[in-house]
Design goal:
By secondary structure, the chain is mainly β. The chain contains no helices and 13 strands.
Length: 202
């Protein structure tokens, strides 16, 4: 336990670099009126922050290797999960995940507009279930090479109707198990590559 001439207090360190500097493992349990075991608070007001710095080494005057920040906003707070940009100890922190005070979560963005807002490429290695509308403003690319021998097999399975506003281009064979209705004025059917198992209505 050390108190320096500048007023810094050190526990398990002889050179505290802040007002209260604890080195080593700590267990802090305090009973607060709100029922919390550990309560950390900072200055009040919009824009004030409370930081929990986590570092795998002593960063000195540089940013820690990671940090969790609570940013005050309208009697609530946003939560920022940050890690240091790899490569050098002098690099700054970057916000990797942002939990907005209204519940929206941003990955690689600090202004999420949706419940989950991801900026960048996203990969799902397992099954994904969507029970509502899926809106895509860009290109959908399916790289699965599974072939289709029936309406229930293939890389893309649709159990409901499909509406196409623009042109539909098929690079391989087209197998239609039900009726085909064409509302356009001109239709060309290549019988070598198109198999229709029911009626063709033009």
């Amino acid at each position: 336990f050390v108190i320096t001439t500048s007023g810094n207090v050190g526990v398990n360190t002889n050179s505290p670099s802040s007002n209260f500097h604890v080195s080593g493992s700590q267990l802090i349990t305090t009973s607060w009126t709100n029922g919390s075991n550990l309560c950390v608070y900072g200055g009040s007001g919009v824009g004030s922050v409370v930081d929990l710095a986590l570092s795998t080494y002593d960063p000195g005057a540089n940013d820690p290797t990671s940090r969790i920040r609570a940013l005050d906003s309208n009697y609530s707070s946003h939560l920022l999960f940050q890690t240091k940009t790899p490569g050098a100890g002098t690099n700054s922190l970057a916000t990797r995940m942002y939990v907005q005070n209204d519940g929206k979560v941003g990955i690689n963005t600090t202004s999420p507009a949706y419940q989950l807002d991801v900026v960048g490429t996203t990969r799902f290695s397992g099954a994904s279930l969507m029970t509502s509308t899926l809106g895509v403003s860009g290109v959908v690319s399916i790289t699965n090479a599974t072939s289709s021998a029936s309406p229930t097999t293939g890389a893309l399975l649709v159990t409901g109707g499909v509406g196409v506003v623009e042109n539909l281009n098929v690079g391989g064979n087209a197998v239609i198990a039900g009726n085909l209705s064409v509302l356009g004025s001109t239709t060309t059917v290549n019988t070598e590559t198109t198999l229709i198992e029911d009626n063709l209505l033009v």
